[in-house]
Amino acid sequence: MTLIYVHDALERILAPFQPLPSVLVPLRDSVGRVLAEDIRATTDLPLFDNSSMDGFALLASDATQAGEATPITLQVVDDIPAGKMPTKEIHNGQAARIMTGAPLPPGADAVVPVEETDFNDRAPGTPLPENVKIFKAPRLGANIRKRGNDIRNGAGILFAGQRLRAQDLGMLAMLGVAQVPVYRKPRIALLSSGDELTPIGTPLTDGKIYDVNSYTLGAMLESAGCEIISLGVAADTPKSVKAALDKAKDTDLILSSAGVSMGSFDFIKAVIEEEGILNFWRINMRPGKPLTFGNYKEIPFIGLAGNPVSAFIGFMVFVRPVIEKMLGRSEHSSENRQTRDRVRVKLLEPIQSDGRESYLRAFIDRKDNQLYAQLTGHQGSGNLFSMVQANALLIIPVGVKSLKKGAQVDAWFLD
Ligand code: AMP
Ligand code: MG
């Protein structure tokens, strides 16, 4: 069977997937979700001219001569806490006490902070003074946040395809958006397979190992923003595999690991072929050469290789882009995916490769504005410890068999 290129496989895998429908979620629940619509400002922000200090609102022209030794005395005519509207217009010779965030009274064109008045250092609750002394001349507009100085009504604020962060939630709150349109979470059915797999929490018996992939793949799905439907662990029989896959109803993708090599107990391919469509590819990559793609009873299916590192890297290369596409992150097309997030690093040691596109576990360090990479140890597809020690994957291009110390390669930082 011929080897197919990573890029071609990814393109074929991505083709049938489309962005999911959008749903409204309460703002509080929207962090990490992906916006499904552009958000435009529906008002100016700030919405009204307001004070950025606790102080006195006045006419700047009244206080041009104010100084430490030559204070100007103004009559205090109003008291404006945050959340209240001013009741008076400010005329020459007058001032209003004003708190941070309170609307600027008409007539006033500057705010002098309390620290620059004789009303400094008063206990909260001190009644409004009749007069106030101003010790420093304010410039016109001092300490005033003008309506619309942050955002103009109609401005584009956040865009479809963006993953919402804490500051984005704050912005949406500022705009009064209570329900946020986000893409529905991809629902992913996750299956491990193999007679040797034992769930953690159970003592191991001879020849058995713990199920690792449910945890690594589950964690990666979770952080990519998916809802996981666990299909558990299937034994190496067609019956067990089918029974597990039948629990995948109403999911957007079935993701399995193992059982797709050439072993005598690798039944995944046979089951997929019987109940759906099977594409089995040997990919020109290392690790993770065998990959099954198709569908099971019309649900898209991706079968990753079973070794823990192969499954992990297979996820990064083939599954993450599928999820990004379902989440409307169109910039993550297969074309862009190949270059996305890549950094150039300099090798601290020579590297041998076998000509396949290789993803090697490495640790990247920064020194004098240059990134340097060193392999983290055994690169076998079962050596998970080198993945634990790694903070990046080096991507050795197809056709390259050796690289000298000091050569430059692309790398992906691991999240
Ligand atoms: P297979 O493709 O089924 O031959 O699996 C390849 C290798 O990966 C074997 O050594 C399996 O024991 C191992 N393996 C498969 N699935 C898992 C898993 N969920 N956790 C840990 N190791 C696994
Ligand atoms: Mg197996």
TrEMBL record:
Documented EC number(s): 2.10.1.1
Residue span, MoaB/Mog domain: 189-325
SMART domains: MoCF_biosynth
InterPro entries tied to this protein: MoaB/Mog-like_dom_sf (IPR036425), MoaB/Mog_dom (IPR001453), MoCF_biosynth_CS (IPR008284), MoeA-like (IPR038987), MoeA_C_domain_IV (IPR005111), MoeA_C_domain_IV_sf (IPR036688), MoeA_linker/N (IPR005110), MoeA_linker/N_sf (IPR036135)
Name listed for the protein in its UniProt record: Molybdopterin molybdenumtransferase
Gene Ontology terms, MF aspect: metal ion binding; molybdopterin molybdotransferase activity
Cofactors, names only: Mg(2+)
NCBIfam families: Glp_gephyrin, molyb_syn
Keywords from the UniProt entry: Magnesium, Metal-binding, Molybdenum, Molybdenum cofactor biosynthesis, Transferase
Similarity annotation: Belongs to the MoeA family.
CDD domains (UniProt xref): MoeA
Pathway(s) annotated for this protein in UniProt: Cofactor biosynthesis; molybdopterin biosynthesis
Any one GO biological process: Mo-molybdopterin cofactor biosynthetic process
Biological role: Catalyzes the insertion of molybdate into adenylated molybdopterin with the concomitant release of AMP.
Catalytic activity, reaction form: adenylyl-molybdopterin + molybdate = Mo-molybdopterin + AMP + H(+)
A single cellular component GO annotation: cytosol
Organism domain of life: Bacteria
